[in-house]
């Protein structure tokens, strides 16, 4: 039944009943995004559009015999007067959540990313360490915990955003202290430099990986060659005139785009040129 809601919203957009959100003039507007039983709605902040969306939700509820839980729903605004925010929120009967906020565990924010966005990751690190504190662990056991748990905690965030250097230093400091001391409180001599620890085992290291660049490179490759909706939107906004991400100099943009484009050197280092028709090359 979620597909029927998706089709209804697209039909309303095609009939100019709702406009959705447009990130640039040369790409289509987006009205919604769905994941499992969760739906993110995108719209202009107007009472007319809010009522049109509410009409579609009411039709969906009647047809599917399913109820939208507005008590668990929220609405966020960008550059909207407080009075208009209250009017629109009253139509849906849900609370207003100011940005920065969180959606499916991913931070939603406007403008540049703040290191405060990473506070939940650092807090999760500290909770994990508190649970392990006092445990009699061998060096090998601590290494496995760092690899299997501590290194994976920020993966969700790092798959979208480049970790700020100040946050990376805090995270690596926590990993170092746990590996050599077993706790944040005790101070012990670090027997091997951290850059040596992070080297592959074939090069004499312990195989700890720095995943941020690899995760962002995966997104960069999707932008360059993928066919997903979000990749089309980013290409339309940042790669005008059919420029190729891997051969052009990326422009500055949103925090997520800047994070993705920062990983392009990783892809370029692992690719080779192949002769073609020259269509994507500027001389």
Automatic annotation (TrEMBL):
Top-level taxon? Eukaryota
Protein name as catalogued = Reverse transcriptase
């Amino acid at each position: 039944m979620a597909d029927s809601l998706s089709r209804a919203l697209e039909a309303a957009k095609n009939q100019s009943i709702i406009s959705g959100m447009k990130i640039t003039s040369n790409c289509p507007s987006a009205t919604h995004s769905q994941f499992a039983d969760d739906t993110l709605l995108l719209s202009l902040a107007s009472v007319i559009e809010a009522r049109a969306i509410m009409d579609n939700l009411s039709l969906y509820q009647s047809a599917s015999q399913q109820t939208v839980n507005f008590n668990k729903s929220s609405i966020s605004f960008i550059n909207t007067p407080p009075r208009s925010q209250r009017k629109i929120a009253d139509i849906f009967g849900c609370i207003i959540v100011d940005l920065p906020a969180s959606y499916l565990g991913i931070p939603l924010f406007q403008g540049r990313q703040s290191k405060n966005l990473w506070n939940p990751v650092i807090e999760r690190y500290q909770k994990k360490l508190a649970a392990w504190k006092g445990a009699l662990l061998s060096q090998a056991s601590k290494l496995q915990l760092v690899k299997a748990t501590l290194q994976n905690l920020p993966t969700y965030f790092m798959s979208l955003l480049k970790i700020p250097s100040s946050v990376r230093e805090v995270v690596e400091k926590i990993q170092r202290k746990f590996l050599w001391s077993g706790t944040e409180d005790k101070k012990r001599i670090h027997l091997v430099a951290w850059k040596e620890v992070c080297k592959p085992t074939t090069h004499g290291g312990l195989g700890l990986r720095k995943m941020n660049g690899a995760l962002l490179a995966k997104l960069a490759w999707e932008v360059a060659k993928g066919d997903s909706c979000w990749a089309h939107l980013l290409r339309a906004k940042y790669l005008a005139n059919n420029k190729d991400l891997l051969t052009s100099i990326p422009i500055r943009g949103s925090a997520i785009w800047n994070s993705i484009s920062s990983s392009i050197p990783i892809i370029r280092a692992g690719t080779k040129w192949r002769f073609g028709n020259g269509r994507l090359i500027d001389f």
